[in-house]
Amino acid sequence: MRLAYIIALTACFNAATCINSTITDDNYAFTFEYLLKYGYLSNDVDAIPAQRRNDVFRKAFKEFQNYYDLPGDGTPNKETLKFMSKPRCGFRDILKHGTKASLSKWPKTHLTWHFHLADETACSTAQAAFDLWSQHSALTFERSEMPNADIIISWRRLLHYNTNIKVNGALCSDKFDGPGNVLAHASLPTDQAGFVSEVHVDGDEPWHIYVNKHPADKFSLHYTLTHEIGHSLGLLHNRRTTSVMFAIQPDQQYPVKLDQYDIADIQRLYGEKIQNDKPRRTPAPAPPPPPSPDLCSLDRVNGILILEN
């Protein structure tokens, strides 16, 4: 925690006279970490002169409000803070400057996947999530065994390790926060040889692991995996609330489907679905039989066959 910046944020909050006294010191720390985690504040905030920190924070806060169409002028308010507490994906909204994430994609269209230490029900739900992407693109997916899989899904908690340590290193750079807020995260494809994309799902959340409608007190694993697999394929967050790539988990996560822009985005990376079945040709109709000759029009008869009953 950068204490000096938190103190500056405290002053910024206190300057907002419209703020209710229910906004506590914990809000200051949470807001700072949130804006930093999701890309609204840069990692070099320590280098910003103290006299500019309030302005930098207000600009970041305003950018967040604009991104999610929230009312506000960069001044902290309870509505924005409440929105920040909603369950969401842990992937950044705003990427670092210079990141060529829009070009992140796999160099192939057939990918393998593995759900580490998951039961058959969870694996079936994962298959349904992959199917949504393959139904609308040239991508095909095959369930495989680790460590040969291109995409590895696993349950993780708090400070956690990657599943494929050989390729991705031991410690995941993004920890979970217990129940609530961050539900899962995933990595974009890279051009690294042997790259493995990992999808980490927070095991501390109450999950509905089936593909049918989820109860109100649980999160849909089907919806969350569809979203995270989108990241593993190269898609970023967007601002469309109808999109499965919207960062905030909607209250209603059933049925899970891609909107028209999700489909356009995945096809932009991998092309439209390839139809393997060649269209069947309709056989040409048989020619009609030749007409029977008219006996009265014959000029000559070579022979007559007489049959007796």
Automatic annotation (TrEMBL):
Protein source organism: Temnothorax curvispinosus
Note on how the cofactor is bound: Can bind about 5 Ca(2+) ions per subunit. Binds 2 Zn(2+) ions per subunit.
Annotated residues for binding of Ca(2+) 2: D150
Protein name per its UniProtKB record: Matrix metalloproteinase-19-like
Positions with a binding annotation for Ca(2+) 1: E205
Name of the gene this protein is made from: LOC112459409
Annotated spans, Disordered: 272-295
Extent of the signal sequence: 1-18
Keyword Zinc: yes
